[in-house]
């Protein structure tokens, strides 16, 4: 069999003319996908930082309530048992009974002062619940954007494949998918823009908004909320008076117990055990008091508040802006692709020219026709 004669329609493949605009139309979504993954990760990091700050703040608030409750119960138990026993033992010495009753009054006063320090007790707003709700929404948001990114990637790849293979059915399917992704991209642009604008407005002056909202939800006084949200020298500690009175009451109890130890133990050996128990209770109470002073200081909760704001106003906002850029790039490129696909369709060869058989197969109808034409030309 003689050499195969090249045909003019084989000399210039239409696929070669389609590939340049194919790469141009799908290059922007390809670059946007990388931007989208980065933005999605940054947004997720910001929301995770917000949730972590809320959980840590809840731990601090719960610890304050627990320490106050344990201290008050410990003082109440000391009043009911050791001090009552001590009064019975020292009943013959009225001056010692008076000192014991003075310690009882100071213990009851200290318990009352400390009871008012559990400011979060009974508040309906739970930072844990807020953190769980935020995490729940973020998980679905993150998953939705990952699926959108993968969908854009698949549409780009299969569009390029359809153009390279000159497959009309694949181009038709990808045209419909491109239209769907275009609608989703423009929808995400609107959602991201609205969220970014609202978040930017919030971040311009967050203290006032958060203070008013928290006061409305919790019913706490503005002095307490301002102390923790602002945490500066212009705002005084609203618990300072109670802390001072509690410290004085504990110091008075300690002084009275020392006096009772000097006077009562030499004369009443039965008073030694309740006095030692009271001294141990007082030492534990003083340690709890110092822990409570540290917990009630604004540093810890204000640090959590600042961490939550940084997560929202830095990482999350930056991620939203990158996601919006991804959506804009995808929408613009997909719109360009949809406008260009009809031109690509026109460049495709007629369907009669497609055949899945091998060109070198002698039983190929196209090859047989070309062979007959070659013989007739000799």
Automatic annotation (TrEMBL):
Sample GO molecular function, one term = intracellularly calcium-gated chloride channel activity
Do you know which Pfam families this protein is assigned to? Tweety
Its cellular-component GO annotations read: chloride channel complex; plasma membrane; smooth endoplasmic reticulum membrane
Residue ranges annotated as transmembrane are: 142-163, 170-189
Q: Does the keyword Ion transport apply?
A: yes
Location of the region described as Disordered in the Swiss-Prot/TrEMBL record: 356-378
Q: State the compartments where it is located.
A: Cell membrane
Please give the catalytic activity noted in the UniProt record.
Answer: L-glutamate(out) = L-glutamate(in); chloride(in) = chloride(out)
Q: How does it sit in the membrane?
A: Multi-pass membrane protein
InterPro entries this protein is in? Answer: Tweety (IPR006990)
In terms of superkingdom, the source organism counts as: Eukaryota
Q: What keywords are annotated for this sequence in UniProt?
A: Cell membrane, Chloride, Chloride channel, Disulfide bond, Glycoprotein, Ion channel, Ion transport, Membrane, Transmembrane, Transmembrane helix, Transport
Provide the family line: Belongs to the tweety family.
Per the entry, what this protein does is: Calcium-independent, swelling-dependent volume-regulated anion channel (VRAC-swell) which plays a pivotal role in the process of regulatory volume decrease (RVD) in the brain through the efflux of anions like chloride and organic osmolytes like glutamate. Probable chloride channel.
Oligomeric and partner information: Homotetramer; disulfide-linked. Homodimer.
The name under which this protein is listed is: Protein tweety homolog
């Amino acid at each position: 069999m003689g050499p195969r004669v090249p045909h003019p329609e084989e000399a210039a493949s239409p696929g070669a003319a389609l590939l340049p605009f194919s790469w141009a139309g799908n290059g922007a979504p390809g670059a946007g996908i990388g931007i989208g993954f980065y933005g999605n990760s940054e947004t997720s990091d910001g929301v995770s930082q917000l949730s972590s700050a809320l959980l840590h703040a809840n731990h601090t608030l719960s610890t304050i309530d627990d320490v106050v409750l344990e201290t008050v119960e410990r003082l109440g138990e000391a009043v009911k048992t050791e001090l009552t026993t001590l009064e019975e033992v020292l009943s013959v010495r009225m001056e010692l009974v008076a000192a014991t009753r003075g310690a009882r009054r100071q213990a009851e006063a200290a318990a009352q002062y400390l009871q008012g320090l559990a400011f979060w007790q009974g508040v309906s707003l739970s930072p844990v619940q807020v953190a769980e709700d935020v995490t729940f929404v973020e998980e679905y948001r993150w998953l939705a954007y990952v699926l959108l990114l993968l969908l854009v990637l698949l549409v780009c790849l299969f569009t390029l494949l359809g153009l390279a293979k000159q497959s009309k059915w694949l181009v038709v399917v990808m045209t419909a998918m491109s239209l769907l992704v275009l609608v989703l991209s423009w929808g995400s642009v609107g959602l991201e823009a609205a969220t970014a604008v609202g978040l930017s407005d919030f971040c311009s002056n967050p203290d006032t908004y958060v203070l008013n909202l928290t006061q409305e939800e919790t019913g706490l006084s503005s002095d307490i909320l301002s102390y923790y949200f602002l945490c500066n020298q212009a705002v005084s500690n609203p618990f300072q008076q109670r802390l001072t009175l509690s410290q004085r009451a504990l110091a008075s109890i300690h002084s009275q117990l020392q006096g009772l130890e000097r006077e009562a133990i030499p004369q009443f050996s039965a008073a030694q055990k309740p006095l030692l128990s009271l001294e141990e209770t007082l030492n534990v109470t003083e340690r709890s008091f110092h822990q409570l002073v540290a917990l009630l200081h604004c540093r810890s909760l204000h640090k959590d508040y600042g961490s939550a704001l940084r997560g929202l106003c830095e990482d999350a906002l930056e991620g939203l802006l990158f996601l919006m850029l991804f959506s804009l790039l995808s929408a613009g490129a997909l719109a360009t692709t949809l406008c260009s696909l009809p031109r690509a369709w026109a460049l495709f060869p007629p369907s009669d020219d497609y055949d899945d058989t091998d060109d070198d197969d002698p039983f190929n109808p196209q090859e047989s026709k070309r062979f007959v034409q070659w013989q007739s030309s000799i």
